[in-house]
Amino acid sequence: MVFVTKYRRGVFTEAMLDRCEEIMREVCADFEAELREFNGEHDHVHLLVHYPPKVALSKLVNSLKGVSSRRLRQEFEPHVRRYLWGGRFWSGSYLAASCGGAPLTVVKQYIRQQQRPT
């Protein structure tokens, strides 16, 4: 999955990405899903998630984006407000793709190679 910040604003810092990963791991655990890989850049994050078939992807995505938005805004409020306004953190869209044909090692390597903000 790929989530992009609203207006593609470069809001993420290294500390924010670390906290975002923690939050998303907690949300995945609530859905009996596993966040297998996470990384991001200034304006987006990549997630490799293994989730059971009983979980509706749209509900998982809504929870991941909703919980992370709320917590990141609360915990990094002065910084986030400089980049984002109007109560939105994430863009309304997202990318969700199946990687059933690709080896997981290739997908994990791609996610790990994303450049973290300095």
From TrEMBL:
Listed InterPro entries: Transposase_17, Transposase_17_sf
Molecular function GO labels: DNA binding; transposase activity
Domain of life according to the entry: Bacteria
UniProt record, GO biological process: DNA transposition
Cited PANTHER family: TRANSPOSASE FOR INSERTION SEQUENCE ELEMENT IS200 (PTHR33360:SF2)
Transposase IS200-like domain segment(s): 2-114
SUPFAM superfamilies the UniProt entry points to: Transposase IS200-like
Record's protein name: Transposase IS200-like domain-containing protein
Organism the protein comes from: Streptomyces dysideae
